[in-house]
């Protein structure tokens, strides 16, 4: 499975690189952009935890740091891997599972450089009728919520993406076989998953908010597992998602990499100081487009967000160990700084 996933990722790199380049990416990276600023392309799946990036773009924080940043939105977070490997994107928001899997097979061109989320924020939402039939609510024991997934049509963004891997973990925790005991269906991005749940093409899906909260607010979903609230204990203190950079680009452009992190940190301060004001600034970037739900989302995410972008060595080691123990990765990965992650481009105290 892992080898097949990596082959698919790298096999599609050229096609995706061309697609990203057509949207403004430059395989050279670090080249002069508009007004002489350093051009940077970021590939990402739209998500509320990327609020600091959207605010930095909207408020001109990147420009003030001498950067010309282009954001290319993807259908799945996994699609950011080939774009960043090829150099058509300088950054992609990824998980340590992606980097550990690639590194185990000899691909070391990516390195985590900016921490975003310190907890797995996936939120599982289910058709309310199905949840009632199975007798589960968010107050049910977590084991019962896992077991309720048996036989259901479960939506994920794409095969091998984080939404797929963590869904399979839930099934295994219930003693179920993900290949036999449920139907896992690749749907696409958050808007597509939301529509699939509403039209009953799927019975449940998980993604970071806001779309699961939208489904609940509109009555065609009920949240069973709330990631931002720490419903899954093993994932409540976890180096979940960050910005990975193309290693060669970052080493050649250290000042631009530091400038990118400074802009993100300035924007993150706004998010943590006043989540509702931040929500108003970025509501037009979110497919849900519902301000009250986005306010709820940023309120929920705030405790999980990294204020300074720094990685903690102990947390990285624990995360890699847990991912291996629960079969999200085949190997534990090397926790040493400089292998999968670095604080070299942020103003962090040495770990």
Describe the model:
The protein has 2 domains: 2-118 and 238-325, Periplasmic binding protein-like II (D-Maltodextrin-Binding Protein, domain 2, 3-Layer(aba) Sandwich); 123-235, D-Maltodextrin-Binding Protein, domain 2 (3-Layer(aba) Sandwich), CATH 3.40.190. The longest helix has 20 residues, at 254-273. It is α/β, with parallel strands linked by helices and 351 residues long. 42% of the residues lie in helices and 15% in strands. The chain starts with a helix and ends in a 26-residue tail after the last helix. The strands form 2 sheets. Strands 2-1-3-10-4 form a 5-stranded mixed β-sheet, sandwiched between helices. A 5-stranded mixed β-sheet has the order 7-6-8-5-9, sandwiched between helices. Residues 1-28 have low confidence and may be disordered.
